[in-house]
Amino acid sequence: MISLVVLAAVARLVGTAAATQSDPLPLPPMGFNNWARFMTNINESIFVDAAEAMSKNGLLAAGYNRINLDDAWSTKERAANGEMVWDPVKFPNGLPWLTAHLKSKGFIPGIYTDAGNVSCGGYPGALHHEEIDHETFTSWSFEYLKIDGCNMPDHSEATYHEVYGRWHEILSGADHPMILSDSAPAYFSGEIAGTNNMTDWYTVMGWASAYGQLARHSADILVYPDGIYGGGSSWVSMLYNYGQEVRLARYQRPGYFNDPDFLNVDHPSYTLDEGKSHFALWCSFSAPLIISANIPALSQEEIDYLTNKDLLAVNQDRLVQQATLVSSGQTWDVLTKSLENGDRLLTILNKGSSTGDLTVSWESIGLSSKALRRANYVSAKNLWTGEQVKVSVKDGGITAKAIPSHGTAVFRIAKSISPVTPTGIIFNTNTTNCLTDNKSGHVTFAQCDGSDAQTWRVRPHGNINSLLRPDECIVDAQGAILSRHSGCRTDAWTYELSGNLINNNSKLCLTEGANGAATATSCGYELNEQVVGLPVGVTVVGITV
Ligand SMILES: *[C@@H]1O[C@H](CO)[C@@H](O)[C@H](O)[C@H]1NC(C)=O
Ligand SMILES: *[C@@H]1O[C@H](CO)[C@@H](O)[C@H](O)[C@H]1NC(C)=O
Ligand SMILES: *[C@@H]1O[C@H](CO)[C@@H](O)[C@H](O)[C@H]1NC(C)=O
Ligand SMILES: *[C@@H]1O[C@H](CO)[C@@H](O)[C@H](O)[C@H]1NC(C)=O
Ligand SMILES: *[C@@H]1O[C@H](CO)[C@@H](O)[C@H](O)[C@H]1NC(C)=O
Ligand SMILES: *[C@@H]1O[C@H](CO)[C@@H](O)[C@H](O)[C@H]1NC(C)=O
């Protein structure tokens, strides 16, 4: 839960190295949390009933094995000895009973606190009580801790870093460290912080991704429309969080997952196709799959898509790549990533208002038509229908037919004889403008339109070419970015965790200048105009904490 406050950007803390902790969570967590469905109206029955329903309806068997409490489980005051106290009315049997009960049913229990002095919902926060609260949560047998970021002493990046750093030390020093879900980055995302300056957001993402196993990076997904919270479109809310997630792909790695928030699948404003797209996108991202819904009341259709084995295998794939955009236009978004066995994922989202078909070329998928010529066909599985297809190489790519408005097509393309090249848009993660090639060789930043002029291949030696001009590569020509044949021999580029794309020769950073100019200028610290998103699979160099 996040309060919409205007955060003042102050100094950042420089140069503290993060201890690399052993990864207790190699794969994205799956389970249940009360927040988006019940907010603060919680009690023991919600969690007991959710667990029972999940055991019966196949969710537990499908891998949803976490039951996480969110805000409002405690009394409004600590005990005289300083400890947190569970609300005895909401939890008549107590939290140790609840965790034992959940564990006996095969679930792993998680709990919530707030890094500030008061939680978002007005309950005691953990500030200056970190040690005692950690001991309490451990003694109650919780194994997962979400730490929200309301009501901190101030809104500076340095303060958040210091307080979350304290938690990191405590948790990583424990015998069996709890999973840490930290919400700090959300408080620095543009809309919530009320700023156009994204530098602090990127900085917080850097340390949050080293401190926790997952981090909430932006707004809460729309909560259930009860009397207090009103209505709204969950599709719009979901697409907003999706749009934030795609800016941050470079941070995800085994053991750390960007968290675009809950699967609020039973929000009544979703159509079935929209709910399925929400799920398919979160699976494509290898994002946490934490359902926040009234589980006992889920429909069979909802259970069916939430337990789709092929999509869950994509989510839980051991490479845990976050799919990135191949292209993005008015109607279509196309995403890809690689899977551990060498398969490619292709996810196509129809943002438009009518049903449509789309063909995605082999090159866009990251394959080579030339290499594929030695084969007759490419095998693919449609993950929504389960249909296996053999697509003739001569067809030029994969065609998805009749994708409904707000629906998604997902294909798992079997490993082929073609090598895989990271391919997709290169975009400024502040303006979301796409690096755009031009037949003249002139390169600019322009609104993303889904064209081949905006789909780039990042080759093994760091040369980068667009699909529009496959024989040319971008170069830093005295500060101006051009696309030229000579660049493929001489100009390598390096992508850093800071989001900078740096020319190996000039050491200058790709920069979006005024009016969409694409230039190479001296690298600053995570500047709006120099932080870009690249296709997943490109090596990301450096850890900045
Ligand atoms: C953006 O924020 C960073 C970190 O707080 C600061 O150093 C920088 O000067 C800001 N940039 C602008 C253009 O205000
Ligand atoms: C528990 O909370 C749910 C949702 O707020 C409510 O419907 C139910 O009546 C409550 N049960 C008890 C025993 O208080
Ligand atoms: C929390 O901190 C704020 C200022 O940092 C203070 O005004 C407030 O009284 C504190 N609240 C509690 C419950 O400690
Ligand atoms: C970041 O992008 C927003 C939206 O396009 C724009 O208003 C703002 O000026 C940009 N900030 C910088 C420093 O480029
Ligand atoms: C391509 O560049 C030429 C000249 O540099 C310019 O006139 C034209 O508008 C550009 N086209 C696009 C699609 O940007
Ligand atoms: C480019 O620079 C990076 C980082 O310094 C280095 O790892 C890489 O090998 C260089 N690539 C080439 C082709 O020189």
TrEMBL record:
<dbReference type="InterPro" id="IPR017853">
    <property type="entry name" value="GH"/>
</dbReference>
<keyword id="KW-0430">Lectin</keyword>
<dbReference type="Pfam" id="PF00652">
    <property type="entry name" value="Ricin_B_lectin"/>
</dbReference>
<comment type="function">
    <text>Hydrolyzes a variety of simple alpha-D-galactoside as well as more complex molecules such as oligosaccharides and polysaccharides.</text>
</comment>
<keyword id="KW-0325">Glycoprotein</keyword>
<dbReference type="InterPro" id="IPR035992">
    <property type="entry name" value="Ricin_B-like_lectins"/>
</dbReference>
<keyword id="KW-1015">Disulfide bond</keyword>
<dbReference type="InterPro" id="IPR041233">
    <property type="entry name" value="Melibiase_C"/>
</dbReference>
<dbReference type="GO" id="GO:0004557">
    <property type="term" value="F:alpha-galactosidase activity"/>
</dbReference>
<keyword id="KW-0378">Hydrolase</keyword>
<dbReference type="InterPro" id="IPR013785">
    <property type="entry name" value="Aldolase_TIM"/>
</dbReference>
<dbReference type="InterPro" id="IPR002241">
    <property type="entry name" value="Glyco_hydro_27"/>
</dbReference>
<feature type="domain" description="Alpha galactosidase C-terminal">
    <location>
        <begin position="330"/>
        <end position="413"/>
    </location>
</feature>
<dbReference type="Pfam" id="PF17801">
    <property type="entry name" value="Melibiase_C"/>
</dbReference>
<keyword id="KW-0964">Secreted</keyword>
<dbReference type="GO" id="GO:0030246">
    <property type="term" value="F:carbohydrate binding"/>
</dbReference>
<dbReference type="Pfam" id="PF16499">
    <property type="entry name" value="Melibiase_2"/>
</dbReference>
<dbReference type="InterPro" id="IPR000772">
    <property type="entry name" value="Ricin_B_lectin"/>
</dbReference>
<feature type="signal peptide">
    <location>
        <begin position="1"/>
        <end position="19"/>
    </location>
</feature>
<dbReference type="InterPro" id="IPR013780">
    <property type="entry name" value="Glyco_hydro_b"/>
</dbReference>
<keyword id="KW-0732">Signal</keyword>
<dbReference type="GO" id="GO:0005975">
    <property type="term" value="P:carbohydrate metabolic process"/>
</dbReference>
<protein>
    <recommendedName>
        <fullName>Alpha-galactosidase</fullName>
        <ecNumber>3.2.1.22</ecNumber>
    </recommendedName>
</protein>
<comment type="similarity">
    <text>Belongs to the glycosyl hydrolase 27 family.</text>
</comment>
<dbReference type="GO" id="GO:0005576">
    <property type="term" value="C:extracellular region"/>
</dbReference>
<feature type="domain" description="Ricin B lectin">
    <location>
        <begin position="423"/>
        <end position="517"/>
    </location>
</feature>
<keyword id="KW-0326">Glycosidase</keyword>
